[in-house]
C-alpha cells in the first residue's frame, strides 16, 4: 500500500482496533451494563484507553471483507488495518466531548443473540449516537462493529466502501490528486482550529469523485457549519441530493429545517429520529426548542419538564425550563428551580446573574425570595 493510500485510510477512520484471535463467547446483559458504566466513567475522567481498545479486530475484519463480498485486495485490507491501529477512537470521543459535552448510555438491548449499547454523544447543541454490537473474547468484552447514526451505517460498511473506492479509483488518479488527498489531515486540523475558510479552500481542491463520498460530504457539512447559515444550508442540500434515503437524514435535517424556519418539519424530523433510535428522553430538549420556536409555550414547557426529570444536571435544559416557567407566569417554580440549580451547582453564579439580567421579572422574584 502506498503512503497516499495509507494517509487516506488514516484520515477517514479515527479508530483503533485491538487484535484478538480466540473464540467468541456470548455477552450477558449484566456484562454489557457493566461495560457501559466503565465507558461513562472513562469519558468523565478523560481517559481514552477503554474506547481506544474497544474494537475486536478479528470480527471487524471479517465484517469488512463480507461487506465487499470478499472482493477486496488482501494487501489493501491488511495495510488499512495497520493504519487504523495507529488511531485512537477513545481519544476522538474525549476530544469531541470536551468540557461541555456528554457521552452517556441511552439504552441496552439484545438483537440476534448479541448485546448492544447505544451511547449519545452531545456537544454544543449537536448530537450523535453510537450503537455498539458486543462480543466476548475470553474475559474481554469488545465491539465487533458500531452503527454511527451521523453516517447512517455501520463502521464496517463505511470502511468497506472507502477501501473499494481506493481499489477501483485511486490507482488511476493523477499524482496531483493523490497529493491533494494527502492533505485531508490538514483539513481536519484546520477544522479543529476553527479555521473553516482555509479548510474550505483545501476541501475544494479534492477530486470531485472523492467529494461525492459520504464521509467527505459530512466534512463539507462540518466546514459549512463554521462558515455561516448559507454555506451550511448549501452543504446540507448537496448531501440530501446525493443520499436522499439515508436513515441519518432525520438527524441531519433538523438544522436544515430550522435554517429554513420550517419548524413543524424540524419537529417531525426530531420525532422520526427518536422513533428510529427507539426512544431517547433527551430528544425532549429538541422538541422543547421546536415548540418554543413555534410559540407553543405550554408544549415547550412540558418537554423541558420531562427533560429535567430525566436529566436534572443538564444545565441547558434547566435554563430553558426556568425561562419557560417565568414566561408562562409560574414565577414561584422558576425561582425555586433556579435556587436549586444554583445550590447543586448545575448553574454557576454567573449564569444565575445573567438569567436575572435578561429577565427583570425573574430577578425581582428571585431577590424577593431571599
Give the helices and strands, then pairings.
Elements: H1 3-12, E1 17-18, E2 24-25, H2 29-44, H3 49-52, E3 55-56, H4 57-67, H5 74-84, H6 89-97, E4 102-111, E5 114-123, E6 126-137, E7 140-148, E8 153-154, H7 155-168, H8 175-181, H9 184-192, H10 196-204, H11 208-211, H12 214-227, H13 229-242, H14 249-259, H15 263-277, H16 283-293, H17 297-310, H18 315-327, H19 331-343, H20 349-358, H21 360-368
Key attributes of the depicted protein:
370 residues, alpha+beta, Nuclear Transport Factor 2, Chain: A, Serine Threonine Protein Phosphatase 5, Tetratricopeptide repeat, 3 domains, 6-stranded antiparallel beta sheet, two-stranded parallel sheet, globular
Short description:
The protein is built from 21 helices and 8 strands. The protein is of the alpha+beta class and 370 residues long.
Outline the structure in words.
- This protein is of the alpha+beta class and 370 residues long.
- The protein folds into three domains: 3-168, Nuclear Transport Factor 2, Chain: A; 173-246; 250-368, Tetratricopeptide repeat domain (Serine Threonine Protein Phosphatase 5, Tetratricopeptide repeat, Alpha Horseshoe), CATH 1.25.40.
- Helices cover 62% and strands 13% of the residues.
- The protein is built from 21 helices and eight strands.
- It has helices at residues 3-12, 29-44, 49-52, 57-67, 74-84, 89-97, 155-168, 175-181, 184-192, 196-204, 208-211, 214-227, 229-242, 249-259, 263-277, 283-293, 297-310, 315-327, 331-343, 349-358, 360-368, and strands spanning 17-18, 24-25, 55-56, 102-111, 114-123, 126-137, 140-148, 153-154.
- The strands form two sheets. Strands 2, 4, 5, 6, 7 and 8 form a six-stranded antiparallel sheet that branches.
- A hairpin with a 2-residue loop joins β5 (114-123) and β6.
- The model is unreliable at 1-21 (pLDDT under 50).
